[in-house]
Amino acid sequence: MTEARRFLVRTFGCQMNEHDSERIASVLAGEGMVRTDDLQEADVVVLNTCCIRQNADDKLYGNLGQLKSEKDRRPGLEIAVGGCLAQKDREALLVRAPHLSAVFGTHNVARVGALLELARRTGEPVLEVLDAPGEDEGTDFASAMAVRHDQPYAAWVTIQVGCNNSCAFCIVPEVRGPEVSRPFGELRAELERLAARGTVEITLLGQNVNSYGRDLTTRWRSSTDRAAQAWAAGDRWVGEGASRSRPLFADLLRELSAVPGIGRIRFTSPHPKDLRPETISAMAESPAVCEQLHLPLQSGSDRILAAMRRGYTAERYLGLVAQARAAINDLAVTTDIIVGFPGETEDDFARTLEVASEVSYDSAFTFIFSPRPGTRAAQMEELYVAPEVIADRFERLKVVIERSALAHNRARVGTVEEVIVEGPSKQDPRVLSGRTRQGKLVHFTPPDDNKLVPGTFVGVRIDYGAPHHLVGTLVSADERHLRNPREHIPVTSG
Ligand code: SF4
After folding, report:
1. How many whole angstroms separate alpha carbon 487 and alpha carbon 408?
2. Predicted confidence (pLDDT) per residue in 89-109, tens digit
3. Which listed residue, of 49, 219, 254, 255, carries a Cα 20 to 30 Å from 211's Cα?
4. Cα dist from 179 to 13, 91, 185, 224, 241, whole Å
5. Rounded Cα–Cα distance for residues 208 and 222 (Å)
């Protein structure tokens, strides 16, 4: 019997890319290949790329250089590159790295196996990059491909691809195309399937989840999706939304939260300009939706926000956070902030510090501005901020974020949190790690006869809070001890 061929997938980028990597892995596994994390035993290496930040493509080209030596040693090794950077660079990638077997775009993920096969047959590298989703609706939304390799109890579910915005620093609209939402009924069915196979936590993915459904009205007129037609016909098949001509993200949250067995729903990312009161209410009233709102700020200066073409002001942003905090008990708020956008003055940055301080974030991803070729911001060269100024601002912002993160985490000391077990801690395998509903990392010591498998819900009393994690003690997982008991979640005693 011939041994199955092995594939390795490396991801450079965001959660959307990680999700695509799981889809790539599903396609290759579906062709009888076996996944490996060891380059030495891989017959196929797929690099799934992101072009949002410079260091992702630096990493890609660094990796391609290393893989060239491996290919020189093992000529049978097949290397493919997919994702945003492949979508953007296309032929240029093959020119820079002629040792590639295939280059495929963000809309061609489901074809990765076929492309590699074609390259193998012809002995020539293959390039396939569609500019928009293919005729086959499943191309971008391949179902049953969502379970996470690293956390089998959790899954990513793409609800929408593409983006209709035009943020000056971002290349996504160019490489992912306009927004395409996935039909409502199909999403509900996917969650039911995932729940049936033991998935308890879902992260809904989209470039701007708050605009989910905008494109559905016209598509549904010709759709064969029964639920979609019911919606279009005004049938009250789902909540209050039936009187509208299209579903809102809020309707989706309510619908998916009702799927039995799904204990936690998270989503990323909502654009502040499209965050509606209906979404905040749906978060507050849908038991499975976690008390966590990731709301990208990017800058606290109205002048810079306008230059970024973000479509909101700092005041509006602060109003949204206040509304969300008033409606949702114990809400954790996290964000993304770019430091050193072209033209950012000390005054602009002072506004960012003020807003960050006023919001009091639980955590933040802070980024140093890096120009992406093809974006408006990349053409503002004369306004670039000096690297040493950016570095200084970056450190000052970090201090503000860490201060509030620490205050929030210390405030949890003494509470008992509902924690989902992720597995042994990366630092110390004798310790277990898990996440609270707010997405906070918790470390705790398991019982001697540890039977706490990943995906188990437990109660942990918090003893210590640091800026980026909590430390606690496993307590009797009696539902009465849990802050957010969910009747349909099997709670396992420690
Ligand atoms: S909303 Fe802005 S930052 Fe987000 S994907 Fe769209 S263009 Fe990029």
Report:
1. 27
2. 888 888 888 899 999 887 788
3. 49
4. 20, 25, 18, 20, 21
5. 25
Closest to 270 in 3D by CA, of 301, 311, 232, 302? 311
Distance 144 CA to ligand 1 centre (A): 27
- Note the residue count of the chain: 494
Query: What does the alpha-carbon distance between residue 190 and residue 184 come to, in Å, rounded to a whole number?
Result: 10
Lowest mean pLDDT of 242-256, 275-289, 352-366, name the range.
Answer: 242-256
| Closest-lying ligand 1 atom to the alpha carbon of residue 207 | 5
pLDDT in the model for residue 330? 95
**Residue 279 burial by Cβ neighbours in a 10 Å radius (0-12, 13-18, 19+):** buried
Closest CA to 320 of 305, 331, 309: 331
Omega before 269 within 30 of 0, i.e. cis: yes
User: What DSSP character marks residue 493?
Assistant: P
pLDDT of 228-267, one tens digit each? Answer: 555 555 443 444 444 456 778 999 999 999 999 999 999 9
Find out whether 335 and 364 touch, Cβ atoms under 8 Å: yes
**What is the C-alpha to C-alpha distance for residues 476 and 494, in angstroms, rounded to an integer?**
6
CB neighbourhood size of 424 (10 A): 15
Give the Cα separation of 366 and 368 in Å (integer): 7
Q: Is the CB of 408 under 6 A from ligand 1?
A: no
Atom 2 of ligand 1 has which residue's CA nearest to it? Answer: 167
Once rounded to an integer, what is the mean pLDDT over residues 289-315? Answer: 97
pLDDT surpasses 80 at 30: no
Evaluate whether 117 touches 35 at the Cβ level (below 8 Å).
no
d(CA 455, CA 167): 37
Asked if residue 107 has its Cβ within 6 Å of ligand 1, the reply is no
Strand, helix or coil at 225? coil
Tell me the per-residue pLDDT of 178-231, one tens digit each, with 9 for 90 and over. Answer: 888 888 888 999 899 999 988 999 999 888 999 998 887 655 555 555 555 555
